Amino acid sequence: MSLRKLVAEHEKREKAGVPVKDFLLQLREHGYNVDAAFDLCSEKILCLPVIKVTNLRTCAGKTYTYKIVLSHLLWMEPGKEWEAVFETFMHELAHLITGLGEGHNWKWKWTCRKIGCDDSRCHNLRTMQRKPRKRKLVAACFPCDKKWHAKKKLSEWKIYRCPSCGEIITRIKGG
């Protein structure tokens, strides 16, 4: 088989993803206990694909009824790549086991504890930290020289008053 065909076949497999069952076996090879996850998963869940994507930048993973999507940034976490992958994958798997409409309620937390992952809702991965949004100057009070910065423009239909002096503040155009 030519190199071009091998590369094309590898890319096709990457897009199709790895079944949950095989992904759990990979985690077991890296030393994680996944026996409880095997017990709680239905045959349907074990056949769903786990896909690594590059377009998730601020969330570590997403669950759909037909797949689990993990960010490629999980594998770039220095020194603890598989720990980040394990926690995120099990978090998303808990969503599938409890049902997608359950959110992060007590059933989901119980399932997380049962399958051996942390039941906190958020991660603290350095590779996925959001950059703070730049705030624009949106209004100013000229009598007391106070300025307001915000992410969005102020409504054109409301009248805003300065909390310090009580004067009507001026909206800045373009801000």
Number of strands: 7
Topology-level CATH name of the largest domain: Zincin-like
Tell me the count of domains.
Answer: 2
Q: What pattern of helices and strands is seen along the backbone?
A: HEHHHEEEHHEEE
Shape: elongated
- N- and C-termini, Cα separation: 59 Å
CATH class of the largest domain: Alpha Beta
- Please identify which CATH superfamily of the largest domain we are dealing with: Metalloproteases ("zincins"), catalytic domain
Secondary structure: helix percent: 25-40%
What is the overall pLDDT average? 82
CATH architecture annotation of the largest domain: 2-Layer Sandwich
**Structural class by sheet pairing and helices:** alpha+beta
